[in-house]
Amino acid sequence: MIQQNTAIKLGEIRTHFLSELEKQYLEVEMLRDRLDQVADHSETCHAIGRICHKIAGTAATLGFPDLGDIAAKIDDFVASNCVTHPEALSEMRDHADHLLVLISLIFQEE
Amino acid sequence: MKILAVDDDVIILELLTEVLRAAGFPNLVVCTSAAAALEEVERTDTPFDCFLLDIQMPEMDGIELTARLRRMHEYRNTAILMITAMSDRTYIDRAFAAGASDYITKPFDVLEIHSRLRLIQSLLAEHVRLDERNPTAQQNAPASLVTSADLEKRLALQDIDGFIDYLALENYLMQVSRVSLFGMIAFGIVVPDMARSFRASSVFEFEAAVSDFAEAISESLKPTSFFASHAGEGAFICVLTNAQTFNPKMLEEQLCKTVRDMDLHFCDGRPISLTPVAGEGISLHLKSSRAISKVLVRALQSAEERARDPGAQHHTPSGKIMRLFGLG
User: Fold this and answer.
1) What is the ipTM score, two decimals?
2) Closest Cα in chain A, distance from residue B110 (Å)
3) What pLDDT sits at residue B16?
4) Which domains does chain A have, with CATH numbers?
5) Which of chain A's termini has less CB crowding within 10 Å, N or C?
6) pTM for the complete prediction?
7) How large is the C-alpha radius of gyration of chain A?
């Protein structure tokens, strides 16, 4: 059984995670828009990948397994170098949209 | 147990601090970069007992940090756990080659971290008990004669290419089995009569000979990618990490040539005329830690049988092998 002070501490970490997630949402939203505007999308994809790498590391442990899954999927997608292929752009857009929707839902529920 | 955790994500560090405190490991120092960790290691008066390292960090990553820690004498055998989201085989291989003891994939399971740390704590306690009971066995006067405990001890041999600690090899196989064991072949190598030949030798002589044979194995296996570990006495376990076939005869020939070229001698000038024998290769298709231990036992058993009788088939593991693997 989790002790009361541990539960309080974990609650504080969860709150910190959510406040970081708010910033990460805005960053991903901005990067997602850039995917429609910039010709060379490789750096943009890697920037999204770095954010997802961080989210994937903690989301599931803090009670957001679905968010962790999609973040890990995007992280793997970017790490596998798929993003250098032109056809990967539409898939990356879909992934980013999915992530943004999921984060929005989390904020609605919290 | 004094632990140093390094991750560029402060939320991970907050989480680890709380999870470890709740599990009874409150002595935790955290750093957000490898450079800060190295400064902390330099600054501290009491050495750390365990490291928890992230792999992907800006500038110096966790794998480079592992390699640097291993080059420091006081951290040659300290537990280094990689806690990382990188589950790719390449990262796992690089981390263990650099000297990682174990590998935990993020998002981490709180219970898994607890159990790994408890295991490390119990190993540390065991070392302390051994030190107290038999101080000479641990800080061997190099000139003292070898004891049975010295002969059976698994040497880490981390300075030899491809060689890692025996427990790290088991952990490596466990970790890789979650991704893919395709193309992995395990086999044993034994140097027959090693224990008998070195019974009247010094600890230094015995350990130097083990190290020489390990060097010969490493040279003979190159350029194939592999991990290998000393399994006590004159026994070694090797795992080819990207191979479809393995021919023990060919390896043996190469190994014998390398050993001959090394022209090994005892300290009194007598030549060491021992010839290593390789066992049959076993393709790895395993999942559980028990299955991994069994395959390693079988691999070594095969080498021992070939050493006794080149035409020998499968037999029950000998008492010596069971003892070396802690199964007897």
Assistant:
1) 0.87
2) 8
3) 93
4) 4-109 (1.20.120.160)
5) N
6) 0.84
7) 15
